[in-house]
Amino acid sequence: MQFEDQKIYEYIDAHQQEYIDRLGRLIAQKSLAGVHEGIEEMGALVVRELEQQGLKVTECPTPGNTCYIGDVKGESDKVLGFYDHYDVQPVEPLELWKSDPWKLDIRDGNLYGRGVSDNKGGIAASLAAIDAYQKVYGKLPCSVKMMLEGEEEIGSGNLPYFTEKYKDQLFCDGIIFEGGTRGSDGGPCVITLGNKGCLYIELKVKTASMDAHSSLAAIVENPAWRLVKALSSFKDDQDRVLIEGFYDGIQPLTEEDIEILKQDGFDIEGTKKYLGLDHYLNHMDGIELLEHYHYVPTANIAGFSSGWEGVGVKTVLPGEATAKMDFRLVPGQDPDHILELVKAHLHKHGFDDVQVTKLLGEPAYRSDSKSTFAAILKETAKQVTGQEPTMDYQAAGTCPLAYFCAEKNIPAAMAGTGTPNSNVHAPNEFYKVEDFVADIKFRATLMHKLGGNQ
Amino acid sequence: MQFEDQKIYEYIDAHQQEYIDRLGRLIAQKSLAGVHEGIEEMGALVVRELEQQGLKVTECPTPGNTCYIGDVKGESDKVLGFYDHYDVQPVEPLELWKSDPWKLDIRDGNLYGRGVSDNKGGIAASLAAIDAYQKVYGKLPCSVKMMLEGEEEIGSGNLPYFTEKYKDQLFCDGIIFEGGTRGSDGGPCVITLGNKGCLYIELKVKTASMDAHSSLAAIVENPAWRLVKALSSFKDDQDRVLIEGFYDGIQPLTEEDIEILKQDGFDIEGTKKYLGLDHYLNHMDGIELLEHYHYVPTANIAGFSSGWEGVGVKTVLPGEATAKMDFRLVPGQDPDHILELVKAHLHKHGFDDVQVTKLLGEPAYRSDSKSTFAAILKETAKQVTGQEPTMDYQAAGTCPLAYFCAEKNIPAAMAGTGTPNSNVHAPNEFYKVEDFVADIKFRATLMHKLGGNQ
């Protein structure tokens, strides 16, 4: 405990019901981006809650759902940013919920409701940290900027529009993306400083206007064969991508990266068991496996669909075949450039009949592990939890860090004391009360330290 | 007209309403093998109709729906066989029918109802031909054997059981399979003397017990990639099958085969237009295209299914991938042997993780084009329609000729005056009244000629 006294932590503990009640108000408002239900109402509620907490709110219309920036000034010139989203996943199958997903329920030390962990809890924790700090110290130690979008659960399609149009208002000295969790055993926090990007494409071959009798396969081109051949040309038998230039520009791992990998918290045996795997790809294990998971880009077939997909026999010649692919990219790989390489590869190999459509492109991003912000995050995690955090320099998944951070090289992280394995996107989503309260302390401590305090 | 007088044709014309009424009774009884609706009732009706016509019926239970053999003796020792099926396709979508599919409707010179063409019309035409011949001449010129199954529309799974168990009762001097149609322009009959066989398999790769987050694609094997690679190894870029031994045992075309191909009725331009094709496989045309259609075996991907097949983005690593393949085989290729070659190929190329399941295997069959039966068929077609028939020595599709004919080399054909493009398997299935009546004459004439008459 580095605060001059425990006053703020005690204040948070003493007022946790008040903060839980605010989270309850956020949960009670549906905000389903997929079916556009409650989006405007949720936006209005967010504006009310931020303004009640003294933030100045800028409404930022986009071609889709409105984004919001909430600003509050602090004593120093430092700015701490929080990126969160006010939309949530659907609740189906509803019958599997043990309590109403739209009504915060507290039982067995857990908060239940759609969005408690992903990620209305993050919004509530930031507001609570601001509240507690202001109540105890009168003024914030740094400025806080809350940046909220309403389409995260449907792909953040308008986020680049927002970050480009409002970029002059979005500078921060460090940004927390949604939050972070403890390790899978509920232990030390995992601080994630970067993530892979993602290019998502659809590949389609259409040869005939309809499926036909398969006797015609002797004389009519089969789009599934064409797509199989095209996809097959993308990779060698060791899963290495054969698209020319695909690996160009990727930086080799540093010794520090390898040291961090050695401490990585990925549960190799547990994941293998959970997924029912016989073995990992190419029988990888240990540090090689972890290196691939965090640092090697992928070319994944996310879906393939053609012809008869039901049970039993149907002798049909498909009229079209479609595949979905995602490429998880690492720093140095630009999604649009990779898209061009894919198209060039198809052309070079005679697959001009394969139509490629880009559905999503998000660049990778990696924060400087030597930044002040990274150091402060580690100190904060240790102070709040009493344990050294685990570092992850590059997550295997994708988060829109780059849109906010790439141009100005802003330090960013997914970090906090969120509950791991908390049924996000699933029925009975929960957040441990103690983790929620710790996360308020985490955010308050982070403000304190970024503001120049010890 | 080669009969000593037109008496039998006149009799058929005069009694056509009676024959249409019988077809109406067959249509009115549902017989859906897929949902097993009305199957026993249809069997009982078929027995009644055959017995009323003087046939001696043998009920032949199988592990599935019952087969029936109906025998009636004639003057000569020749036996004419008819293979037909008493089950029909489903009627959905019902709303597209202009009249009740289960009630024979006559309008604009057509008979409408489910099964009129496929293939209760064939059963009714055989019974009508027997009736007319007996009424006019007192006795049939040859024996007639009707062989009926009730699972044709769901794959004839128990037909090999039937033909093996009752093979001593199934010898004929020639067999008509279901019937045949006029050419696509309603012109001369097409007499088909053989057909490709079919091996239908499912290929499955399973790597994980569930779909997973696609970030794991860096370390977990993707079953879709495995299946794509395995399938890709089956063919070269010119669509030639690379499975070792696949083409072994296939006989080259004779000069006669090529002559027949030159007269083939396949509508190259019309089919291209109908299917909306830009071009045929490998830009084939003319005699090369016809040769492929009739004589070259296929390896067709009938379906491929894995991972996310919906609209838009889902970044998922599939847990399994499944493909369906049909191989249309030609004489010399045994389905079970080809299955072994497929398995050996996969093993040799390192794809032991691809599980292969056989769903169907029917051998090809080709009747002797120089047989007496073939000659009689040609004469019959010419006599009934006034036009030289078109010959097809080997159809591109599959029909279960081999089960009945292969062991004893029985001449067989799909032949008759059926209506082409008559919406079989679709709403508003029809049969032109004049074609139905002509088909009764066709069958009566065939009996006459096989019995040794001119």
Report what the structure shows:
The structure is a homodimer of 454-residue chains. By secondary structure, the first copy, chain A, is α+β, with helices and mostly antiparallel strands. In chain A, 32% of the residues lie in helices and 20% in strands. Chain A is built from 13 helices and 19 strands. Chain A has helices at residues 7-14, 16-28, 39-52, 120-137, 159-165, 223-232, 255-262, 268-275, 286-295, 335-348, 372-385, 401-405, 433-450, and strands spanning 56-60, 67-72, 79-85, 105-107, 110-112, 143-149, 174-177, 190-192, 194-195, 197-206, 212-213, 300-307, 316-317, 320-329, 355-362, 365-366, 390-392, 412-413, 430-432. In chain A, helix 11 crosses helix 13. The radius of gyration of chain A is 24 Å and the shape is globular. The model of chain A has no long low-confidence stretch (mean pLDDT 95).
> What is the total number of structural domains of chain A?
3
Instruction: Give the helix tally of chain A.
Output: 13
> Structural class of the helices, strands and pairings of chain A?
alpha+beta
Principal-axes geometry of chain A comes out as globular
Rounded average pLDDT of chain A:
95
Enter the CATH topology name of the largest domain in chain A: Aminopeptidase
Give the % helix of chain A. Answer: 25-40%
What are the key terms here?
homodimer; 454 residues; alpha+beta; Aminopeptidase; Alpha-Beta Plaits; 3 domains; six-stranded mixed sheet; four-stranded antiparallel sheet; 13 helices; globular
